[in-house]
Write a structure and sequence with these properties.
The complex is a heterodimer of chains A (185) and B (436). Chain A has 11 helices and no strands. Chain A has helices spanning 2-7, 15-23, 27-36, 38-49, 52-69, 79-98, 104-113, 119-131, 134-144, 150-157, 161-179. Chain B is of the alpha+beta class and 436 residues long. In chain B, strands 14-13-17-24-21-22-23-20-19-18 form a 10-stranded antiparallel β-sheet, with no helix packed on it. The chains are: A mainly alpha (185), B alpha+beta (436).
């Protein structure tokens, strides 16, 4: 009967119910959960993958992993931080695989193409960001690009709050160092 | 604000205005479509876990452990034919493993390959006896990283230290695909991921034999739609039927006219010499070639003479997008895409409008709104009701009565039915064949 309740119309159903349905193997329920925060999921994937194609690829991989492992999610209310952690991990493993294929030149060209206002600065930022280790890059991007607070970053990346702060500090310092002079103040 | 802050802020602006891909929902849905339904798998692995307990009591474990070239420990997971093939020593032994940092390991014991699929036989081991809760996922990749979706059954040992899996790809391998990579993805209890890899070369000489390919090319009329069954390939490990619900041209028209159909289940039956062949898996997927489906049955028994393929049932979700006037004080009978919907009663309570209605139990208003005096209201909930079995001649159907509630009230009511899903029983012969 729950089945009917959720599927019919789809209005007024809360996250917890959908998570329960998804745990029972209901694919549409899982899809509804993701679509309810589609912008957040897409942005998060984009931060790591930097282009639409790869972002959509990892989102597809993610939803399959979610479907296969949701029965092991212990706290239903933690669905979103749990699924975003999985998304981040999927991105990282995909990036690891793609590593050999992406050269710096390619990044440079892409950045140049889609940015007209101040290409030089933008290239520099992207270039120096990409020289930082992934653990520093990701906290900076999540904090500044996606406007995540420390607590959210800590939950999604599964690292302690203190580590978020120290990585963000260290990352920003390295970035300033790399960019030099006028960027510092 | 420093220049760096400004730069980062500009980037943020771009993210704030990011444009979502139009087909995001469809692409996610088609990824999910590729995954076999889960319920079955879990259920079977539970059943199997119970079976093995009985077996281990009855068997002498020493004799189980070494047995020539055969794979040991997968007996309960193999259907009839696989078991026979294994007993004949068919297939390729691999025996490669990967061990994660906490001692959990995956051993790829062997594979079987034929024209329909690649079947992997592997074991996940946890020395600490909690293998059931170890989140190890495998991804199968062929040449150039081509991914294979897959499905299968697992069986947990009595002491909880091992799970044996028999996993089949949902697609056949290309003839040039020699090196297969298993990407292992292990999620530790603390949420950290660890990755591993097992690579192996396929030995085509050890593929398990020839297949029979039948071109069926039969079109079946489904009312406003047609189903085309293309081929059936009977290999030593399985029999796979493939077809399409509509081609891309038709699908395009559906999108334009906003009358899409999302098939949910196409149930078929394969009968070999009068005996039903076990249905193992089925799937529906949508891509740029249209909607395609497959159904995998067990392999045909070796001495099969006559085969029959029947379409049993088709269920789908259909776009409707029509308004239906509702009579406030009495019955309203609606007929939507040939499905009867009887509105029994409409009443108001505490500012809400309730609609009590009856359909066949397989019919569902999958997206519905109520328009009250021109204003659209979302469905708040459906209150479960009663089922009633109606026998008409030798066929029986179940009618289901329930009540929908909408937050709003007024005088003129229109039901805005966007989508309806239903299944239709066909039980019709698609194809028959005599093997000589």
């Amino acid at each position: 009967m729950l089945d009917t309740l959720i599927r019919e119309g789809g209005g007024g159903v809360n996250t917890i119910d959908l998570v329960k349905e998804a745990k029972n193997g209901d694919k549409e329920a899982l899809l509804a959960l993701i679509m309810a925060q589609q912008v957040e999921f897409y942005k998060l994937a984009f931060v790591y993958m930097k282009n639409e194609d790869d972002a959509m690829d990892v989102l597809q991989d993610m939803i399959v992993i979610l479907y296969e492992s949701i029965s092991r999610l212990k706290k239903d209310e933690a669905f979103y931080s749990w699924s975003k952690t999985i998304l981040v991990n999927t991105c990282k493993s995909k990036l690891k695989k793609n590593k050999k294929l992406i050269s710096i030149d390619e990044i440079r060209e892409e950045s140049y193409e889609d940015y007209s206002e101040n290409p030089v600065d933008k290239i520099l930022l992207e270039k120096y960001l990409s020289t930082l280790s992934i653990k520093h890059q990701e906290v900076i991007k999540l904090r500044y690009y996606l406007d995540y607070d420390y607590d959210t970053i800590s939950k999604v990346l599964k690292i302690p709050l203190g580590t978020v702060k120290s990585r963000l500090n260290a990352g920003m310092n390295k970035l300033k160092e790399a960019l030099g002079g006028e960027y510092i103040e | 604000m420093s220049k760096l802050d400004l730069l980062l802020n500009e980037e943020k602006g771009e993210f704030d205005n990011i444009k979502l891909p139009n087909d995001m929902e469809n692409r996610l849905r088609s990824a999910l479509d590729e995954v076999p339904e889960k319920k079955k798998k879990r259920l079977r692995s539970r059943v199997a876990a119970i079976i093995i307990v009985v077996l281990l009591l009855g068997y002498n474990i020493d004799t189980l452990a070494y047995y020539g070239k055969q794979l040991i420990g997968y007996e309960n997971l193999m259907t009839g034919t696989l078991q026979e093939l294994n007993e004949m020593g068919k297939g390729q032994l691999i025996n490669k493993s990967y061990t994660f940092t906490d001692g959990v390991s995956l051993v790829l014991d062997g594979v079987m390959l034929d024209d329909n699929q690649l079947i992997l036989f592997y074991t996940i081991k946890d020395p600490e006896g909690d293998v059931e809760n170890k989140d190890v996922n495998i991804y199968i990749e062929g040449s150039f990283g081509r991914p294979f979706s897959h499905g299968g059954q697992g069986q947990i040992s009595e002491d909880g230290t091992t799970i044996n899996w028999v996993m089949s790809t949902n697609e056949a391998l290309k003839f040039f695909e020699k090196t297969i990579t298993l990407d292992l993805n292990y999620r530790h209890d603390n949420g950290d991921y660890e990755y591993g890899e097992i690579k192996f070369k396929l030995d085509r000489n050890q593929a398990v034999g020839k297949s029979l390919r039948m071109d069926i090319n039969k079109k079946i009329d489904l009312g406003n739609r047609s189903l085309k069954v293309d081929t059936m390939v009977a290999s030593p490990t399985s029999t796979i039927v493939r077809g399409k619900v509509q081609n891309i041209f038709e699908l395009g028209i559906d999108y334009l006219t906003k009358h899409r159909i999302r098939p949910q289940e196409i149930q078929m039956e394969l009968i070999a010499d009068g005996e039903k062949v076990d249905n193992q898996a089925s799937g529906v997927s949508t891509d740029n070639k249209g909607i395609s489906f497959y159904t995998r049955f067990d392999a045909l028994p070796t001495d099969t003479k006559n085969i029959e393929l029947r379409l049993i049932k088709f269920s789908g979700d259909h776009d409707v997008k029509e308004l239906f006037e509702i009579n406030r004080d009495g019955l309203t009978d609606l007929n939507v895409l040939d499905q009867d919907i009887r509105i029994n009663e409409v009443y108001e309570k505490e500012g809400k409008t309730y609609i009590n209605f009856t359909t066949e139990d397989t019919t569902l208003l999958s997206r519905v709104y109520l328009i009250i005096d021109g204003q659209r209201f979302e469905l708040e909930e459906t209150i479960p009701g009663q089922e009633e079995k109606i026998v008409e001649g030798d066929s029986a159907k179940i009618l289901y009565t329930r009540t929908m509630s909408f937050k709003g009230r007024g005088s003129k009511l229109q039901l805005d039915i966007q989508r309806i899903s239903y299944s239709k029983v066909y039980d019709e012969l698609i194809y028959s064949y005599r093997l000589d």
